[in-house]
Design brief:
Largest sheet: 9 strands, mixed
Number of helices: 4
Bound molecules: ligand LXVLRK3C
Structural class: alpha+beta
Order of helices and strands: EEEEEEEHEEEEHEHH
Number of strands: 12
Radius of gyration: 21 Å
Distance between the termini: 47 Å
Helix content: 10-25%
C-alpha cells in the first residue's frame, strides 16, 4: 500500500481579529495555516476575563466528602445555566481570580458554592473544554472534604441559586442516571465521564473470569 506523503507545514495561527465583544466573552476571526499549508479562517469564542499572564480560565473541583459511617460522596451542584436554558449537574467550578492559583481558586469556589472546607489532593495540567469552539480551559482540582470536621457538619453556601447534591461514589453513574430520569437536567460531560470511569473501576474487576467463579 502506498503511503501519502506527509505535509511538512507546522499549523499555526497568523492573526486574531475581534469581531464582537461583550462583558464576559468575545468572538474572534482566527486566521491560521493548516497542516497542508493553506491559509484558512476559524470562528473562535474567548473569555474576556482571562488574566494576561496565564493560559487557564477556571477550575473544576472533584470534591469527595468523607464522613465516618457514611459512604464517600461526590459533591455536585445543580443550577440554571442560561446558555443551556435549563438546569445542569456539574462539578463545583469557577473562574480563577487575579493573583490566585488553581488550588486557592478551587478551595474558595468550593466554599462559596457548597459551604464545604476542603483540602487539595491533586491538580491536573491545563485542560481544554471545547477546543473546536473556544480556547476556554480549566484545571481540575481533586479535593477531599473531612465531613467529620465541625466546620463541615452544617455547611452554609454563599450562593442562593445553587443546589448542592451529594451522590455516593460507588453508585455514582447509577444515581446520576436516576436523577436524569426524574428531572429535566443536562449533566456536564466531565461529570458523566468521571462516573463511567468510577463504574469501570468498581465493577470491571468483578467481571474478570478469574474473579467471577
Ligand atoms: N459567559 C458569561 N456570561 C455572563 O453573563 N456572565 C458570566 C459568564 N461567565 C461568567 N459570568 C459571571 C457569572 C458570575 O457572576 C461570575 C463568576 O462566575 P464563576 O462563579 O467564577 O463561574 P461559573 O460558576 O462558571 O458561573 O462571572
Amino acid at each position: 500500500m502506498s503511503c501519502p506523503e506527509k505535509s511538512s507545514t507546522q499549523p499555526h495561527v497568523v492573526k486574531e481579529e475581534v469581531t464582537a465583544t461583550g462583558k464576559w466573552v468575545k468572538l474572534e476571526k482566527t486566521t491560521y495555516v493548516d497542516p497542508s499549508g493553506s491559509t484558512r479562517i476559524w470562528e473562535s469564542v474567548k473569555r474576556t476575563t482571562r488574566p494576561s499572564n496565564t493560559n487557564v480560565d477556571g477550575v473544576g473541583i472533584i470534591a469527595i466528602l468523607k464522613r465516618t459511617l457514611h459512604k464517600d460522596c461526590v459533591v455536585l451542584v445543580k443550577q440554571f445555566r442560561p446558555p443551556m436554558g435549563c438546569y445542569t449537574l456539574e462539578f463545583p467550578a469557577g473562574l480563577i481570580d487575579d493573583n490566585e492559583n488553581a488550588e486557592t481558586a478551587a478551595l474558595r469556589e468550593l466554599k462559596e458554592e457548597t459551604g464545604y472546607k476542603g483540602e487539595v489532593v491533586g491538580v491536573t495540567p491545563v485542560t481544554c473544554l471545547d477546543p473546536g469552539l473556544s480556547n476556554c480551559s480549566t484545571q481540575i482540582v481533586m479535593v477531599n472534604i473531612n465531613g467529620d470536621d465541625i466546620e463541615n457538619i452544617n455547611p452554609t453556601q454563599q450562593l442562593e441559586f445553587v443546589d448542592v447534591i451529594l451522590l455516593p461514589l460507588d453508585e455514582f453513574q447509577k444515581k446520576i442516571d436516576e436523577l436524569l430520569k426524574k428531572e429535566k437536567l443536562v449533566v456536564d460531560s466531565k461529570v458523566y465521564i468521571y462516573a463511567m470511569g468510577m463504574s469501570q473501576a468498581f465493577f470491571k474487576p468483578n467481571e474478570l473470569p478469574v474473579l467471577k467463579q
